[in-house]
Here is the input.
Amino acid sequence: MVSIVSLQGVVALLGRFPALAGADLEVGESEIVLVQGPNGAGKSTLLRVCAGLLRIEAGWAEVLGHDLVTDRAAVRRSVGLLGHDTALYDDLTVEENLRFWARASRVEDDAVPAALDRLGVAERLRDVSVRNLSAGQRRRTALAAVVVRRPHLWLLDEPHSGLDQSGRDLIDQVILDAAAAGATVMLASHELDRTLDLATRHLTVAGGAITSDERGSRNPGGHDAA
Amino acid sequence: MLRDVWLIATKDLQIEWRSRVTFSQVGPFAGLVLVLFGFALDANRPVLLQATSGLFWVTVMFVSTLAVQRSTSIETTDGARRALLLAGIEPAAVFVGKSIAVAVQLLVVEIVLLAGVVVLYSAHVEAWGLVFATCLVATVGIAAAGTLLGALVAGVRARETVLPILLLPVLAPVLIGATRAFDDALGSVAVDGWSWLGLLAGFGVINVVLGALSYGVLLEET
Here is the structure.
């Protein structure tokens, strides 16, 4: 198994608070890993550490072959993070936002129409200012900005929040397609009824540590184990 | 790097063009300050003419705090700063791009203000070259220092009030140098205005270099 994420005794601070307090984790290629746990358990922090956005105070970590202790900036271009914020510019249109993030990420412009189409925002919303979008439409656009980057590691924090039923189904399919194409997906979610069936593994985070790691109903690559 | 500088600068200017904040809020604010200074000093016309340079640059200082706040909030409102880090853009390119966008907006406001002091204060410009050179060099320093401090306070909860408190004292050398240079250009005080450009250029260079070197740390830590 090719190791995509490897953490050993990782400690990360939010201010002075140890949001991750000795996390150990191995994630392989094409896995869909559900990260569950109560509010404040450290799920979002775990994703931010894997994205190279948080400094590691103790322990050792490697993501996509990059050492996060010595050079965490190196991994950033290869990951796509959908956080609680959408990272969209209100005064630009949906398409202008995606074109900006594509160019910023060194991705060809022709990836933009495909991403817009994939997330169902191509027809009606392409030329709409982000300021005028609903919360669900913003979420779809934000995920389109992740899709356009074609990341090797997808880090999705509550990806279904604010979406209607069709939007949730669409997100699930995007995740399965990404894993089938060889990408690795880690998603933090409270929506267990939906995500338990989606994931190949279920992690439980509590008190900044990974307290359980169970195999899911799906095989790596997104195929149903049954 | 130049590609990223262009990307950031055009993005900020496109956002500004769409939102019309400079056009609809900052510009009128600058004009209003100029008019109010005129009301306050118009009874003593010679004093108003002698103070024109200072009033012009004090107004520019006020306007710069608004422009920098706007530039900072573009990136902080919905987590775009984090996405810029993830995109892998050189922080120095972000800094230079955002500084250019702020500088362009300030230059537009300065042109309007210049017309304002000529029309409202009856100021007579004797050296247009010195006026334009002063605006250009001073604006580079203001935009660079402002963008740098904007990043510094980005993570502060009350950044709207903290930014002017930090920025205005830092811009004091620009206020002094640019006012002296304008005094010469407007013929209100007998000084060598071109020699003051050296101070402005030095301020600009220091802040551009400081910003290019430290912006990455500020993006990471705030």
